[in-house]
Predict the 3D structure of the following.
Amino acid sequence: MRWNIRRPIASFFTKYRGEDHVLYSRSASAGTQHYACQFGGDQLSGFRGLTYSINGGVTAGSSGLPFWGVDAGGYDGLCDEESYLRWTEFAAFCPIMRYHGTRPREPWIYSDYAVRLYRYYAWLREKSFALQHRDGRKGTPDRNADDVAAADDVPRGREGKSVRG
């Protein structure tokens, strides 16, 4: 088994904090999912970054990483309101919903409508929290590519699509 840098870091935090900690890692190797959550890196703001993040989530789930998230809204720059709302919808159904970047990511910098939509998706996420993490506790990814979820039942032209659960 290869040496995993997250193991000694997790041991250090467990020694001094008990189980009250979360490690959030940019990269992964076999066994990392036992010690740390993953995030998709520094995505572009806007729809292109969202597309990359959706593909990254499918790849992470197909690779066996149950706790994965993105910098919703992208990392660098400020996306337009429409893409911010789509990022919010996507992030609400990721195992980790995180808003982080080089510019503010709060919904109130956009509009009252953005605040209402954010509140709705944050509420929906909290209401479905048990379902969101049900599989993660077993180590089963929350999101998989269609061909992984139902290998014999993927219609042509559905490659690259994802399914929850």
Observations:
- Residues 29 and 147 are 23 Å apart (CA to CA).
- The mean pLDDT is 79.
